[in-house]
Sequence to fold (335 residues):
Amino acid sequence: MLGITRVPRIFHDLRDDSDNTLPVADEGKFRIPVIDLEDVHEGPPERKEIVDRVRNASETWGFFAVVNHGIPADVLGEMKDGVRGFFEQDAELKKQHFSRDYTRKFGYNSNFDLFCAPSANWRDTFYCAMAPGSPRPEELPAAFRDIIIQYTKEVMELGNLLLELLSEALGLNPNHLKDIDCGKGLTILGHYYPACPQPELTMGATKHTDNDFLTVLLQDHIGGLQVVHQNQWVDVHPTPGALLINIGDLLQLISNDKFISVEHRVLANRTGPRVSVASFFSTNLAPNSRLYGPIKELLSEESLPKYRETTVSDYVTYFNHKGLDGTSALLHFKL
Fold:
């Protein structure tokens, strides 16, 4: 985007939705919950306190930040540097990885919904399916080959801990969500948002929810992420060393709306580039016949199932076909 002084028309935000009708909350009115995981293995009282905080955040915000999560700061820094290095390398080197075939283990493009969305978002993204079954090292770009393998191991360990806490928060056995393969798949998305000369005309990422069970987000210092809370957009200011966690659509579905998958967006910014790394816990489009519906242990005569069963791949296929149109894909699966 070097030398660009005006936003091309394809990026002008033309979506007819409530993105711009919801007010932005006053600075300091709301703050994303921050959960310290340092004492999670200390004993039952400490763990119960953390589980209670995870439950409250998942029911009321759908988002929370974690600190003392166990992933070293240098790993987080190298992962962000690797994403930046990939997108800022020579275009000819990037070109060999360009793809819109999401059955591939790795590829990059701009806007997965480019051909069905009313306007394009101001960003480029790479996607890398790291589990189940990771790409061969030689299939990964040299810019981040070593660090993404290390980051995957770290984030999978954190994800499994979070799935335990979320299971307990639902009143289930700690291994329940892991046993039904919520942590089996991992797709890592690297987002690159160039500096934008006219940020009021476009979006870094349009309002959306995530089509997975759980997302672990690493973001840099620039900011721009907003989430919906109490019918207002709330700025999520970056906290050094913290990771953002959000509930995905599939976890809302299997929790029967006990946990909420919340809309969020990224504003375009005159400062940049902004870099973020989103780790999606989901088997995505990998062939998998397992059906997911509301967890039976959470149902009763007072709490009837709200969704029909679906496979992960069917849900993601519908989500991708619909694109970021400002509506939730969960509506399609409501009973």
Summary: The longest strand covers residues 124-131.
